[in-house]
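Write out the bound-state structure for adenosine-5'-triphosphate.
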Amino acid sequence: MTVVELREVTREHGRVHALRGVSLEVAAGELVAVMGPSGSGKSTLLNLAGGLDRPTSGGVTIEGRDLAKVKDLAAIRRTSVGYVFQDLNLIPSLTAAENVMLPRELDGVRSGRARAEALEALAEVGAEEVAGRFPEELSGGQRQRVAIARALTGERRLLLADEPTGALDTATGDEILQLLRTRADAGAAVLLVTHEPRYAAWADRVIYLRDGRIAEANAVRLESAR
Ligand SMILES: Nc1ncnc2c1ncn2[C@@H]1O[C@H](COP(=O)(O)OP(=O)(O)OP(=O)(O)O)[C@@H](O)[C@H]1O
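---
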């Protein structure tokens, strides 16, 4: 089942062509890595796939809903899409658990249930022991786990990760990739932007962007590398 589909998507910023006619489908259960040089359009692709930005032309569909026809994009973002960015955007005045609860509470889920879900998501990423701590009291790897837990709550089917391992050491980066892989294996569609071939090796497919176009798309099966 296709979770996200981009059809001939372009995105222009004035005279800059950030994306030039990209088509891509990511199915449930798939982890797709997006690679390419700086400025090739990777973040633009991710933002469009998650409804954080709108294409200049072409279309984006998430779980069968054409985003061009959706009035409340924010609602789709909260219910269907989980984001993990390098700039983690954890709110400093909230504990780890409160950060994870927030999107669910914004969506009208009661506090008690949102808290139970948050603790479950934190346990899933191995961060339950930091639930009551504030972001500044956490290591980089712990913060990243909390950000992933926040992206996982509410059974969101599309997970978008933009260099989620950027600031982390190799061992912690591997753990984060393992989490994304596990999530894909459990039925999510995962799009991962990375510069690191070692992380791309966890993907089912790797697409290479160059100057806003897909230059190459490889299906890789590297079970033995995992
Ligand atoms: N808001 C914007 N206004 C103007 N130009 C933009 C904007 N966002 C992106 N661009 C341009 O679009 C192109 C693609 O940018 P994008 O951030 O998607 O690339 P990237 O592959 O993610 O790069 P990096 O690896 O450096 O993060 C670049 O030339 C960038 O300067």
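---
The longest strand covers residues 2-13.
Helices lie at 42-49, 73-80, 96-106, 111-124, 140-152, 170-185, 197-200.
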